[in-house]
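Sample intake — V-type proton ATPase subunit F
Collected from: Brassicogethes aeneus
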Amino acid sequence: MALHSAAKGKLISVIGDEDTCVGFLLGGVGEINKNRHSNFMVVDKATPIGEIEECFKRFIKRDDIDIILINQNIAETIRHVIDGHNQPVPAVLEIPSKDHPYDASKDSILRRARGMFNPDDMAA
């Protein structure tokens, strides 16, 4: 099963390390649009932060992408850009990588959600 909404033609994009991208590509996420732009970016130690920022900005402007998956350790390097994105679509989801476990305290979506709700309201 491909991880995109076939009915709407919307995609999931991935910004991640090689293992993460390969895993999602094997799961059927990879696409190249009519302009020959892919919906994924493999990031390694040599990838300039500016290149990651530009890729993220391209993904949020594309109308065929509904979800952006990004390794949390990579998201940390462009946190100011991610925090500036406040639209519901595309949704930005931070995921762990093989070498970096997920830390909920760093996730910008969870931080925003905590700010919207009073913890006492959640106890019911």
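Post-analysis note: Residues 49-61 form the longest helix (13 residues).
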